[in-house]
Amino acid sequence: MIKIAPSILSADFSKLGEEAKSVETADYLHFDVMDGVFVPNISIGLPVLESVRKATDMTLDVHLMIASPSKYAARFAAAGADIVVFHIEAEPEDEARRAIAAICGAGKRAGLAIKPGTPAETLLPYLETLSIVLVMTVEPGFGGQTFMPETLPKIALLRETIEKRSLHCEIEVDGGINPETAALCVKAGADVLVAGNDVFRSDDRAARISRLRSATAG
């Protein structure tokens, strides 16, 4: 079944606990961390994650858009993340593998993300060690961007490789997701759809989550 992961980057930060509860019919709660270095924006970090953890039992899917993520990955795992995803562009291979091991050693699920300009092939050597890979379908750093269809072949390549190797690794997509683009991503092979504005700007969030799922059926 396709999973939906509303991104709290689009939520009302003055009432994050209520906002989290309003999307509990979804599968994951996506938590974007930006440092103003790796991406040109600053968002939220460890104290907010700890607070959100207390407010919901949802699976917290933390996306680190930060420099030197290996220094912080284990701390985010300890702060309440269930899934910790960081960018392959942010670390050399030895540090990336060390961070993956630290996340898994904390009993959490590890993932790697790629920007739109990064080839999917860069993820292939890591797939056996990952629970999830994240394909950015917009440039990381800001919400509300337009979906980039040129990223779809990367999803397809990852799906083909994961199936060929008989791996249990989800493919997540993030950026410009709505019912129309969701269908394109699922057809290419995506498992998890991150949706920010499409969910949090809806008057009926449960219905919107349901529509995203139904848009991908079949």
What does this molecule look like?
It is a single chain. The protein has 218 residues and is an alpha/beta fold. The chain has helices spanning 16-21, 46-55, 73-78, 93-105, 152-164, 179-188, 197-200, 205-215, and strands at 3-6, 28-34, 59-65, 83-87, 109-114, 132-136, 170-174, 192-195. Strands 1-8-7-6-5-4-3-2 form an 8-stranded parallel sheet. Strand 3, helix 3 (73-78) and strand 4 (83-87) form a beta-alpha-beta unit. The model has no long low-confidence stretch (mean pLDDT 95).
Summarize this entry quickly.
The protein has 218 residues and is α/β, with parallel strands linked by helices.
Annotate the secondary structure layout.
Elements: E1 3-6, H1 16-21, E2 28-34, H2 46-55, E3 59-65, H3 73-78, E4 83-87, H4 93-105, E5 109-114, E6 132-136, H5 152-164, E7 170-174, H6 179-188, E8 192-195, H7 197-200, H8 205-215
Parallel strand pairs: 1-8, 2-3, 3-4, 4-5, 5-6, 6-7, 7-8
Helix pairs in contact: 6-8
